[in-house]
Automatic annotation (TrEMBL):
Domain (TonB-dependent receptor plug): residue spans on this chain: 128-237
Location(s) in or outside the cell: Cell outer membrane
Protein name in UniProt: TonB-dependent receptor
Family designation: Belongs to the TonB-dependent receptor family.
Organism: Sphingobacterium suaedae
Domain TonB-dependent receptor-like beta-barrel: 499-914
CDD domains: ligand_gated_channel
Signal sequence interval, chain numbering: 1-20
Compositional bias per record (Polar residues), positions renumbered to this chain: 182-207
SUPFAM superfamilies: Porins, Starch-binding domain-like
Membrane topology field: Multi-pass membrane protein
Record PANTHER family: PLUG DOMAIN-CONTAINING PROTEIN (PTHR40980), TONB-DEPENDENT RECEPTOR-LIKE BETA-BARREL DOMAIN-CONTAINING PROTEIN (PTHR40980:SF4)
Length: 948
């Protein structure tokens, strides 16, 4: 009913506008030799102002009859004026207005020349004229950075940080907020995720961006204070990836490259092509692009588990990873211009990310007194597929604009072909585990091992980096007994179908109103089947199967200076691993077989599916109150219906029952927003905004699964919570921006977010039949807050003489502090549950983010060295604060250079991780590392050829 009412109001609005009084208008398209110019400012003599869209087009409406004096302003070009006559209620099409060429009616005098300057000017003009507080990067700038996927491209934006997987960027966050609080969009709509781990239990709303090649991106818009016409679930901000669309003229480009990964000691290869043109008297435009990136990778990894009471080492692991990753993408964009006022378009994408990972792992179990070796191979991947059909239409002499779009995007994680059961099926991971009893000499008098900061008196201990296990007696391959085989699948699926319609009406030169409606249907499923084969026969040993020499990859963990060769054993080959999973081998092994699926009590909880239907509507107005002040305000409303299917597991008297269950709920989000944009000069903005935003619960939190186990030490209940309220935030932002005429910007701002209903993993107690049970389920906390500031500077040193004027700097810093109140339940001496409130920092939120770059550019050469810093962040609340898991601070340095041989050919070089920065996680104290990873240097050289 609410949706029908909103649609009726929207149709009434459209009907009224179609009969609006007609006045004269002016349209046109702004271009330079590098393509369309978005974000240009067009101003009439009487103060009416408009800006060009992403395709460079503009429209001025409601003009009086007679000559009109227009001023065109664009960062990087000298502003100019043009006069055009209008008569009657007609729209005058000025056609193409060309910047940056000599002769005729073109606008000349480029202030700064160079390939990066032109694309940076596009981004800054969009940022300058945007009603929202946002940062923008453009496709050419992405191509001039050593960034091969969307996550690594966006990390250069002020206030954006990323999480990496084996050295490559995967997830992005704005202002250090939790990943799931940020909205990742493709062409304005939320990107589906299909995100999961090997056990498929994470179920977050964070989109993995390594599936998205950077070559497909036209612009990236990072909005930090949204407007009502944007998706409302964006507490941290929204990151909108706009894919390439039809070009303004013919274009054909080819790029090929090859490189080397220092950790894998193997090659890397990439290639891309792009072709576009306009036909039928420029009415039909199209672009087709494809990219392929194959790279070998390697990771040296060391991990440790500690005892929560005395911090002794429980397990110490050495992991050597090798792998091959391939990413390909195909994208197409088409549009047909029926007239300057009517256009339809189509955009489609297909991407695929595949990771073939192998590992040989050694685990030294100090407290259990065992030594374990695991050999595994996995082929996982996820693809994005979808497209959108839409149209832009102008009526009533261009005073009334109608936009519509139908879209469907889906992501799917599949089993990618590790042979299983003799070729009759495939899995994502196959694992074989060997173990033997073992004892160690580097232990204290109490039989435990420690790092130096926790060691008891008289015990000689080392730092984590120098820790080396020492066997009390030799261990050989003949001692290593095959313990178990594990075959894991990681399927998941998610699809979004969206229909949207909005209308924008220019009431007069000062006021514009906009209404819109959107409907989205999301369907998803998660679940990770697993087969476990426990070996019941003694004779199968590592030596009886045969091994291959251990590959040290040029020196395992050589950065620490420790020689691990004495404790690293040869392992079985991948061919031997496959052979263990053949049907005859499984039959002969007399294995005890466990199937972890929907029918198994141990795993049923990880299987669920769901649908989410979202109906949204918005109303907003843009009012030019004075020549210096713009006011943008309005309301967004989103109604969400949830239905999830899962399993209820109840254990009683050593038996378990599994029952299918379905839970449903709904919630409403009312999101008022107000933006003030004060322009004391043409090149300065002072912005302030109040916005209301929210973040939906993760899919895994909404999973209706419930498991009751009365047989554990403390009877327990674990369940999802379909009735979770979304986390919501009142956001206040203040930002100042000054745009340099020689292409650059200085900015500074502060922000505050008051949080309500923060979702956290809660533990409480519940009475069932007179028995006190420990209840674990996600809940909404009391409240919280985020406060911070950011500063940035992008400046070309054009005031310097001659050669030195080609230098420039990019630098930005973001500080964020957060806290939330979390209820904590304990049991007192009388057996009663007692509730207290603790204050914690938000998980995965870094206080300090910093980007810096020094670049040089002239008409032929460009070089850039860039550093990216992400400060420490709380990763996991566990036990008391001394046991919390933290992400360690990380600083990476990259280099890129490009040389233009002639107008068609250029060469490039890209170098990543110049300082070989490690990934670190630590346990309470940054000296007590839980995980340490090194990836080494990787790089690529190549050539770009522009046919036309």
């Amino acid at each position: 009913m609410k949706t029908n009412y909103a649609c009726s109001m929207l149709l009434f609005f459209f009907s009224c506008c179609l009969y609006a009084q007609e006045k004269a208008g002016i349209t046109g398209v702004l271009k330079d030799p590098n393509g369309n110019l978005p974000g240009a400012t067009i101003r009439t003599a009487d103060g009416q102002v408009t800006t060009s869209g992403l395709d460079g087009s503009f429209s001025l409406t409601g003009l009086p009859e007679g000559e009109q004096l227009l001023t065109f302003s664009y960062i990087g070009y000298v502003p100019v004026t043009k006069t055009i006559a209008v008569s009657g209620a007609k729209v005058v099409d000025m056609g193409v207005i060309q910047f940056g060429e000599t002769g005729g009616t073109t606008i000349e005098q480029v202030v700064v020349r160079g390939g990066m300057a032109n694309t940076q000017a596009k981004a800054l003009n969009i940022q300058k004229t945007s009603p929202a507080i946002m940062n923008v990067i453009a496709s050419d700038a992405i191509g001039k950075l050593p960034d091969r996927n969307a996550a690594e491209a966006v990390q250069r934006v002020q206030g954006v940080s990323i999480e990496r997987d084996h050295g490559e960027g995967r997830y992005a966050s704005v202002r250090g907020t939790p990943m799931q609080w940020n909205s990742t969009l493709i062409n304005g709509n939320r990107m589906p995720t299909s995100e999961g781990t090997s056990d498929n239990t994470s179920g977050t709303r964070s989109s993995p961006l390594d599936i998205f090649p950077s070559e497909m991106i036209e612009f990236v818009q990072v909005a930090k204070a949204i407007t009502p016409d944007m998706e409302g679930d964006a507490i941290g901000g929204s990151i909108n990836f706009i894919t390439r669309t039809a070009p303004s003229s013919s274009v054909a480009k080819i790029s090929v490259g090859g490189g080397y990964n220092g950790q894998a000691q193997k090659g890397t290869y990439s290639g891309s092509l792009l072709y576009g043109d306009r036909l039928f008297n420029h009415k039909f435009g199209f672009i087709v692009g494809a990219s392929y990136w194959k790279r070998n990778w390697g990771t040296d990894n060391t991990e440790t588990r500690y005892d929560f009471d005395d911090f002794s080492i429980q397990d110490f692991e050495l992991r050597d990873y090798k792998g091959i990753r391939t990413t390909y993408g195909i994208h197409v964009g088409m549009e047909y211009m029926f007239s300057p006022s009517h256009k339809v378009f189509f955009r489609g994408v297909k991407t695929d990310f595949q990771d073939r990972e192998t590992a040989l792992e050694h685990t030294f179990q100090y407290q259990a007194e065992k030594f374990v070796q695991r050999r595994r191979e996995g082929i996982t991947g996820v693809g994005l597929f979808g497209g959108e059909l839409g149209g832009n239409h102008r009526f009533a002499e261009d005073r009334f604009l109608v936009n519509w779009k139908l879209s469907s995007y889906e992501t799917e994680m599949k089993n990618r072909g590790v042979r299983y059961n003799g070729g009759s099926g495939t899995t994502s991971y196959n694992m074989a585990t060997f173990q033997t009893d073992a004892s160690f000499t580097n232990i204290a008098s109490n039989g435990r091992a420690y790092l130096a900061l926790d060691a008891p008196a008289g015990y000689e201990a080392t730092t984590f980096e120098k820790f080396l296990p020492i066997f009390a007696s030799p261990v050989s391959a003949a001692d290593m007994r095959l313990n178990q085989l594990i075959a894991i699948q990681t399927p998941s699926f998610e699809q979004d179908r969206v229909a949207e319609l909005d209308g924008k009406y220019h009431v007069n030169a000062k006021l514009t109103v906009k209404l819109g409606a959107k409907y989205k249907n999301k369907s998803l499923r998660r679940g990770g089947p697993m087969d476990i084969y426990i070996n019941t026969q003694q004779p199968t040993t590592l030596s009886s199967l045969g091994t291959e020499p251990y590959n040290f990859n040029g020196g395992y963990m050589q950065e620490t200076g420790v020689d691990y060769s004495s404790v690293l054993f040869d392992g079985i080959s991948l061919k031997q691993l496959d052979g263990l999973f053949a049907p005859d081998a499984l039959a002969k092994g007399n294995y005890y077989h466990l199937s972890r699926n929907e029918q198994d009590p141990e795993s049923a909880a990880s299987f669920y599916s769901g649908t989410e239907n979202v109906s949204a509507g918005f109303a907003m107005a843009e009012w030019k109150a004075t020549d210096y002040l713009d006011i943008i305000g309005g309301m967004r409303y989103e109604h969400t219906d949830l239905t999830y299917d899962g399993y209820e597991v109840t254990e009683r008297d050593e038996t378990a029952t599994i029952r299918e269950i379905t839970n449903s709920s709904s919630f409403d989000a009312f999101l008022p927003m107000l933006h003030l944009k004060y322009k004391p000069s043409e090149n300065m903005n002072i912005r302030t905004a109040y916005t209301r935003t929210f973040a939906r619960a993760n899919f895994s939190d909404l999973n209706p699964t419930e498991r009751i186990n009365p047989l554990s030490t403390i009877p327990s209940i674990s369940r999802g919570n379909i009735h979770l309220k979304p986390t919501s935030a009142h956001n206040v932002d203040l930002m100042g921006e000054y745009f340099f005429s020689d292409i650059g910007v200085a900015s500074a701002g502060v922000f505050y977010k008051k949080l309500d209903n923060v979702i956290y993993a809660a533990q409480s107690f519940q009475q069932i039949d007179g028995v006190l049970h420990r209840l674990t389920q996600p809940e909404n906390s009391e409240n919280g807050q985020i406060v911070g500031f950011e500063v940035g500077l992008s400046k070309r040193l054009s005031f310097l003489p001659d050669f030195w004027r080609g230098f420039g700097i990019d630098a930005n810093y973001t500080f964020t502090s957060s806290k939330m109140d979390v209820p904590l339940y304990t049991i007192d001496e009388n057996g009663n549950a007692v509730k207290t409130i603790t204050t914690e920092a938000l998980p995965n939120q870094s206080k300090h983010l910093f980007n810096t770059a020094l670049f040089y550019e002239n008409e032929k050469f460009m070089a850039r060295i860039a550093g990216n810093y992400k400060g420490a962040a709380l990763a996991l609340v566990q036990g008391n604060p001394e046991n919390y898991r933290w992400y360690g601070a990380n600083f990476t340095v990259d280099f890129s250079a490009n040389y233009r041989i002639n107008k068609k050919i250029s060469t490039f070089i890209e170098l990543n991780n110049l300082t070989n920065a490690p990934l670190r996680y630590y346990h309470g104290d940054n000296r007590r590392l839980e995980q340490l990873e090194y990836y080494s240097l990787r790089g690529m050289i190549g050539i770009n050829y522009q046919l036309f």
